[in-house]
Amino acid sequence: MGFSNIATGFVLTCVAALGGLSGTGAQAQDRTEQFAVVDQMAQTRWQKSGYVLREAGRSIGPEIKGIVRMPIDYKREFALGALGVGALMLIDRPATEFYQDNIESAFDGFALPEHPLKDKLGSSGLANEDLWLLTGVAGLYGYGLVADDTRAQRAAILSAKAVAYSYAASHLVLKSVIGRKRPYADLSSRGNQEGDIFTTDPLDFGNYHGVSLKPDGYGTAMPSYHFTEYFSVAHVLSRSYDNSWVPYGLATVLAVSNIRGHRHWVSDMAAGTLLGIGIGEVLWRTNQDMQRGQMSFEPQVSKDLVGLTMRMEF
Q: Which domain holds residue 238?
């Protein structure tokens, strides 16, 4: 039983006590019915939560299909994004030098506090910022359960899916296929220098390394997984709450935390941001389309009633 229902039951108990615990049989019957209402509220709460989870499971197939079909279903947006990233790649050397010397240096030393579970989960490959993001998503879902807020539950589930799809699309597939080397952290002082892992050449592609489940520095520059992850979640929350400033602001805070640890070309970060927004939009639209016109039946059982509740969304 959720916290608010426990609180409601406590209030009803206090009211009964103030009315006299030695009341008549009719009063005792009233109190029994009051607690039955509380139990019914809890039943409805968990039924709704169960419906949200079943809904999330049914949408996985269409979501994956939608992400794979993004270049086809969003031709104009994909073409503009590809042109923009391609143009950045042509000026990546000076653009990344400027970014390293001016933007990274401005935020150098800023980092989120170490997550309480960082030591225990350090071997998992999760960065400190990943742990804070996942904690926020879990907290949002927990709030949704306690407050009986299905919008919060849906937003949290979509955010968790956004993290998973970002990992699969960016880290497992695209990084492995593109094989772009990461830039040195001090490009402006390197001249033209090559290395085993890092490079000064923004067109150093094709360094295939196979699929690596954990972070790997070799040939894994494009796209930035963390930018994909942060902005896919930000877009899901932006669409869920019709607010861009807060989720995109928080995504920016995550991106600049430990900013020198990213080791990316500017176009890598742009590609990751656009991919993340695309994944977030596919998740949002797919789930909105599935909710429209759906009809569901949920059993309703109480002391005086046995029946079905029909739910249909348009």
A: 59-312
CB–CB of 140/155 below 8 Å? Answer: yes
Per the domain annotation, does 53 fall within a domain? no
CB 230 within 8 A of CB 259: no
Cα separation values, 66 from 39, 105, 157, 198, 291, Å:
40, 39, 17, 34, 16
Q: How far is CA 8 from CA 13, 32, 33, 38, in A?
A: 9, 14, 14, 7
Do 19 and 163 lie in one domain? The reply is no
- Amino acid type, 123: S
Same domain, 252 and 219: yes
Residues 96 and 204 in one domain: yes
Cα–Cα dist 162/125, whole Å: 18
Indicate whether 82 and 169 sit together in one domain: yes
Whether this prediction's pTM lies above 0.85 is answered by no
- Residue 63 · residue 282 · CB < 8 Å: yes
**Pair (23, 124) in one structural domain:** no
Q: In a 3-state reduction of DSSP, which class is residue 113?
A: coil
Tens-digit pLDDT profile for residues 72-112: 999 999 999 999 999 999 999 999 999 999 999 999 989 99
Angle (CA) 12-18-21 rounded to 5° is 90
Residue 52 in domain: no
Amino acid at 227: F
- How big, in percent rounded to 5, are the helix, strand and coil portions of the chain? 70, 5, 25
Tokens coding 56? 């999330």
Total domain count, the chain: 2
For 128, the token pair is 């400190």
